[in-house]
Structures are given as structure tokens and as C-alpha cells.
Amino acid sequence: MRHALGFGFVCGTAARRVQRDSTIGVFGKRFTTRMAVQAESLGNKFKIALLQVSVGADKQANLTSARKKIEEARANEAKLVMLPECFNCPYDNKCFPEYAEEVPEVGTKLGDFNPGSTVEMLQKAAAEHSLYVVGGSIPEISEGKVYNTSVSVSPTGTIVAKHRKVHLFDIDVPGGIRFMESEVLSAGNSLTTFDVGGMKIGVAICYDVRFPELSLLLSGQGAQLLCIPGAFNMTTGPAHWELLMRARALDNQMYVAACSPARDPDGSYVAWGHSMVCNPWGMVIAEADETEQIVYAEIDLERLREVRQSIPVTKQKRSDIYAVTVADS
């Protein structure tokens, strides 16, 4: 099911909230929203696991490592696991087209897609261990374009969400790092959530987190947990990784889980690591260092409701001055 929501600041007493089925606009850009099928509840408290895996040039080795970590996390009673951005290939513009695969749409069941693919591995792992898998991201090839795409899978092995990175990582920091995803990748145009028994989970990828409008929209759609596969680097990581994750959690009074690859000092792109989970109070409740490991945290929806009730910023928004609005299609 697709819903249309838009974000724009509208000043004046006539400002109002509007909802309709259409494409959404965010400061002139147009998006759609992907929502998935409702599924079995995880309960008010459940454990999540962030799989901070090492990623190398051998795709099959990367997939084997990821699957082993999924198995380990399930043995430790995780009900939802997340992999990092580009977990099946090096984060490198030269690698994206070479490693790119087709990615099926939401609703694709286990056995209905290419044997031996990364997506099939995620589906098999989710079904075998009866958990939700937010499959980090992988390079996707579609109609001649390459996307940075995240697939989420239910405990039955069915794809419940597909998110293409909306904001491409194009930066040039003097004395730091230059990286231009747009030289190879195309941007997605969808905001992504999926339902788990009445709880809504949002998905964004890395650079998406720098744009608070996106997480505000997801929160407005009811997201209580935002999953962010990411790969900050040694320039932006120490300065901004924790700051941004805590800010998005605090802004929207929701849990934010961010999963990075482990750091490889010899890689062409050196990831910061430090996968972490932040609570709706804006505090870090679990964090890795830079090495390969699994980070566990408890998601407590009662705590989330308590925070939202005690500081009810959502109810205190001044819709007479500003508003979240929908762009005309």
C-alpha cells in the first residue's frame, strides 16, 4: 500500500495538515512512500541485534559471515537483526556496478526469486531463524541504473520493505574525504516503513540521516524505531555519527538503530564503526567499538510512550504557524 505524505514549512495562520494519495514533495523534490504488510507483534519489549560485520572483496565470504552472525544473534534471542550498509561488497564506486544484483519488490516470498542471490540468503536466514532481518544495503541494478538498496524480510522469508537510498552521498571535505555516489548511483524516491503487529519501523540509509525532514515524516507516519544501515568514515564518523543518531532519536522521540561495517584500515573506504542504538530520550543505550561484533539492545515501547507522554511535543506543534503538508501531484 502506498500513502502520500509531504513535508514543507508553511508560515501563516492558514497553515494546515493535509493527507491524500499522491506523490510527496520535500522542498521541491518528489517522493512516494512504501508501506508493507502488517505482521505478528514483537511485543512491548524485544531485543534487536546490530551485526557489525567485516566486509571484503569476496562476496560469498561476506554473505557467509552475515548469515553466521544472524544465526548467532538469534541464539541470543534477538527478534530483529540489522546488517550494515553495503554488507556484501566494498563501499566503493568501482565495486557498485560489479556487485549489483536485481532486487525483488515487496511481497516476494522465499523461493520466488533468484537462487544464490543476496536477497535469497536474507530470506532463507529470516525464515530459518524466525526473525526479522533488515538487510543492510546492497547495490541494486534496475533498468540500467544502480541503486543503494535495503531489503527487510519477515520471519516467513517474505520481503516486507524495500528502500532505495534517497540522498546520495556527495561530499568534498578539504583535507578529509571526497566521495561522489552520484557518479555511479541513482537516488531512490520513496520513504519506507513496515508494520510489525501494529508497531511501525522506518528504514533509511546512511546519508539519509542528515536530513531531519525524512525522519520527521517517518515519525509522522507512526515509526517507533528507525533502522539506519550506514557507513560513516574517519572524517565524518568521529564528528557526526553519534550526534546525528541521538538528534534523530530525540527530535522524534523514537528509537534509532544505526549499523556500520567493522573498520578495515586497509580498505579503500575506512568505516568508522561504532554501531549504536539510541532511545527516545536521546541517549545511547548500546554501542560497539570499531571491531567486528554484535551489538544488542532492548526496544521498550512502554518507555517510548512514557517519553512521548511526559514531553508531548507532537501535540504541542503550532499548526497555526507551520505544518507538514502534502505537495500536489
List its salient traits.
329 residues, alpha/beta, 9-stranded mixed beta sheet, 7-stranded mixed beta sheet, 6 helices, 18 strands, disordered N terminus
Please give a quick description of this structure.
The protein has helices spanning 59-75, 96-99, 118-129, 212-220, 236-252, 301-310, and strands at 2-3, 24-26, 29-35, 45-52, 80-82, 132-134, 138-142, 145-153, 159-164, 170-172, 178-180, 190-196, 199-203, 223-229, 255-259, 276-278, 284-287, 293-300. Residues 1-29 have low confidence and may be disordered.
Number of strands: 18
Report the oligomer. single chain
Overall 3D shape: globular
Overall mean pLDDT stands at 89
Cα radius of gyration in angstroms: 19 Å
- In N-to-C order, the SSE pattern is EEEEHEHHEEEEEEEEHEHEEEEH
% residues in beta strands:
25-35%
Low-confidence stretches are 1-29
Q: How many helical stretches?
A: 6
Task: Please characterize this protein's 3D structure.
The protein has 329 residues and is α/β, with parallel strands linked by helices. 21% of the residues lie in helices and 28% in strands. The chain is built from 6 helices and 18 strands. The strands form 3 sheets. Strands 1, 2, 3, 12, 13, 14, 15, 16 and 17 form a 9-stranded mixed beta sheet that branches. Strands 4, 5, 6, 7, 8, 9 and 18 form a 7-stranded mixed beta sheet that branches. α4 links the parallel β13 (199-203) and β14 (223-229). α1 (59-75) runs parallel beside α3. The longest helix is centred in the N-terminal third of the chain and has 17 residues, at 59-75. The radius of gyration is 19 Å and the shape is globular. Mean pLDDT is 89; it is low at 1-29.
